[in-house]
């Protein structure tokens, strides 16, 4: 496959992943009301772990090497433990639009960790476009009155940091193990440790949760915790971690759109204007050069 075609496919897969991730906070907001933080935050991994275990056994996938296992631990801590648990806790007290604004900082976190974990050196133009996108979402947060940080905000910021590291590490490992194998093994690593806490928090009342709550939880377990990562890590492996991460700037506004559709949250004209600015920064960012350390060509 030609390099240009590969990067375009990587960007497309990245977009698919972002669309899927954009339904995560709305789904979490719905599910956590009926199942609680622990069951939603960790239970999704238990379900995903069962599914991927069957897939790995059927495909007779070989075990990761000790070096790869260390990287998978980083992915598991971020994508399997930290992010689901922290966002589930935050969504108990924050609206989806609030969480979406904070999570908009993910591209910068991912690109920053990519420099250390994957040896990528984004250009000055890349960083300028990233700063423009970040300033846009900060303006959005201030406009909505989210200037004062709450404990839930700190949880979301922590989620951004650890997921940024997880994304960067997962994108690097995807080039060795394969995209779906990365999140599959990460789920396998985390799931056994979550069975007991999830079991202790299960109640009979949960069986009577409404259909939308069950659909939301199943979406989190099957799509958000596995299939979305397959598309996302495939995209980063093919298109470059820092470059594909720019598409994440669309995620907060897609989250807000889905929140308006499924949770009746309001979408304002100001939101649309900021979304246009962010989309422009994505277009600029994805067309910049990203150089590998020790190499003179583009990544």
From TrEMBL:
<dbReference type="InterPro" id="IPR050638">
    <property type="entry name" value="AA-Vitamin_Transporters"/>
</dbReference>
<dbReference type="Pfam" id="PF00892">
    <property type="entry name" value="EamA"/>
</dbReference>
<dbReference type="InterPro" id="IPR037185">
    <property type="entry name" value="EmrE-like"/>
</dbReference>
<keyword id="KW-0472">Membrane</keyword>
<dbReference type="InterPro" id="IPR000620">
    <property type="entry name" value="EamA_dom"/>
</dbReference>
<feature type="transmembrane region" description="Helical">
    <location>
        <begin position="149"/>
        <end position="168"/>
    </location>
</feature>
<feature type="domain" description="EamA">
    <location>
        <begin position="151"/>
        <end position="284"/>
    </location>
</feature>
<feature type="transmembrane region" description="Helical">
    <location>
        <begin position="71"/>
        <end position="90"/>
    </location>
</feature>
<feature type="transmembrane region" description="Helical">
    <location>
        <begin position="126"/>
        <end position="143"/>
    </location>
</feature>
<dbReference type="GO" id="GO:0016020">
    <property type="term" value="C:membrane"/>
</dbReference>
<feature type="transmembrane region" description="Helical">
    <location>
        <begin position="211"/>
        <end position="232"/>
    </location>
</feature>
<feature type="transmembrane region" description="Helical">
    <location>
        <begin position="253"/>
        <end position="284"/>
    </location>
</feature>
<feature type="domain" description="EamA">
    <location>
        <begin position="9"/>
        <end position="140"/>
    </location>
</feature>
<feature type="transmembrane region" description="Helical">
    <location>
        <begin position="41"/>
        <end position="59"/>
    </location>
</feature>
<keyword id="KW-0812">Transmembrane</keyword>
<comment type="similarity">
    <text>Belongs to the EamA transporter family.</text>
</comment>
<feature type="transmembrane region" description="Helical">
    <location>
        <begin position="180"/>
        <end position="199"/>
    </location>
</feature>
<protein>
    <submittedName>
        <fullName>DMT family transporter</fullName>
    </submittedName>
</protein>
<keyword id="KW-1133">Transmembrane helix</keyword>
<feature type="transmembrane region" description="Helical">
    <location>
        <begin position="96"/>
        <end position="114"/>
    </location>
</feature>
């Amino acid at each position: 496959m030609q390099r240009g075609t590969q990067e375009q496919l990587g960007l497309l897969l990245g977009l698919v992943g972002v669309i899927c991730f954009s339904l995560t906070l709305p789904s979490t907001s719905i599910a956590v009301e009926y199942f609680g933080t622990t069951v939603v935050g960790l239970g999704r991994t238990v379900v995903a772990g069962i599914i991927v275990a069957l897939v790995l056994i059927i495909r007779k996938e070989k075990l990761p090497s000790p070096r790869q296992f260390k990287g998978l631990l980083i992915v598991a801590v971020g994508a399997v433990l930290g992010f689901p648990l922290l966002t589930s806790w935050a969504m108990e007290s924050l609206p989806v639009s609030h969480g979406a604004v904070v999570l908009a900082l993910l591209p910068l976190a991912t690109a920053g960790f990519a420099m250390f974990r994957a040896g990528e050196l984004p250009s000055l133009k890349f960083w300028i476009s990233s700063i423009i996108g970040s300033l846009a979402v900060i303006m959005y947060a201030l406009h909505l009155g989210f200037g004062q940080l709450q404990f839930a905000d700190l949880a979301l910021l922590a989620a951004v940091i650890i997921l940024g590291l997880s994304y960067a590490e997962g994108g690097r490992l995807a080039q060795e193990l394969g995209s779906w194998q990365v999140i599959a093994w990460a789920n396998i690593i985390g799931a056994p440790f979550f069975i007991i806490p999830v079991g202790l928090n299960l109640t009979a009342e949960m069986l009577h949760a409404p259909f939308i709550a069950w659909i939301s939880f199943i979406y989190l377990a099957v799509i958000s915790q596995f299939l979305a990562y397959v598309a996302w890590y495939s995209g980063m492996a093919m298109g470059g971690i820092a470059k594909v991460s720019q598409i994440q700037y669309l995620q907060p506004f897609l989250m807000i759109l889905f929140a308006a559709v499924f949770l009746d949250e309001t979408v304002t004209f100001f939101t649309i204007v900021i979304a246009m600015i962010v989309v422009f920064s994505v277009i600029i960012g994805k067309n910049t050069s990203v150089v590998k350390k020790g190499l003179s060509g583009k990544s």
